[in-house]
Amino acid sequence: MAILQSLSDISNYPADNYSFYSDSLTVLQALSSLHHHSHPLAFSILYLHDRLVCKGFSILLCWVPSHVGISGNEIADTAAKNVSAVLVNPIPLKDFKHYINLTLHSIWANHWNSQSVNKLRSIKPVVEPWPTLTNRKEDTIITRLRVGHTRYTHRHLLIEEQVPMCTQCNCTMSIFHMLSECPNINYLRLRYFQSSAISLTDLLGKTPHVHLLPF
């Protein structure tokens, strides 16, 4: 926005040599590699730049590192922000969609963080995409283990049976109990995981344990 306004300002002066210094490397790179997905402001800047060049202006755009605390730089930043606040420009659809996605993701993450009795959250504390397995059947098994809902542990809800119990530990059978807790199958954990004490995060995290399915 500051570059666009500066070009607009010099258009009122005689053609001459002008140099603009910006600490926004991203903007300068965007101007040097324009494509059809570029920001609309980049097109506006280059259009005005080309018009001025055709009128005899010589314009040089330079990048300088940001220098916080230097009075001249602070004054320039303040002026640029003031111009941005005054000028009214339509928001590009791409920026608007990006803002909506960030807002929805933030709401989703806050809701996810507020869950205290969610089995999946104990394994996946952060809202982010996880890779899927190439084998659909194996991916389905891993997903059911992660959410803690399997035919064995939850069938009783459908056919009105008694809750499955671990006779060794005298407790309700669950995915956590079977994979990490029950001492009756410690020998299997040692065989497949080389440990009798292993967490669900290690077994069912972003990259499932390689020996989980054989177990």
Automatic annotation (TrEMBL):
Alphabetical list of CDD domains matching this protein: Rnase_HI_RT_non_LTR (cd09276)
GO MF entries: nucleic acid binding; RNA-DNA hybrid ribonuclease activity
Classification via SUPFAM superfamilies: Ribonuclease H-like
InterPro entries, per the entry: RNaseH-like_sf, RNaseH_domain, RNaseH_sf
Domain called RNase H type-1: residue spans: 1-85
Superkingdom: Eukaryota
Protein name: RNase H type-1 domain-containing protein
Organism: Araneus ventricosus (Orbweaver spider)
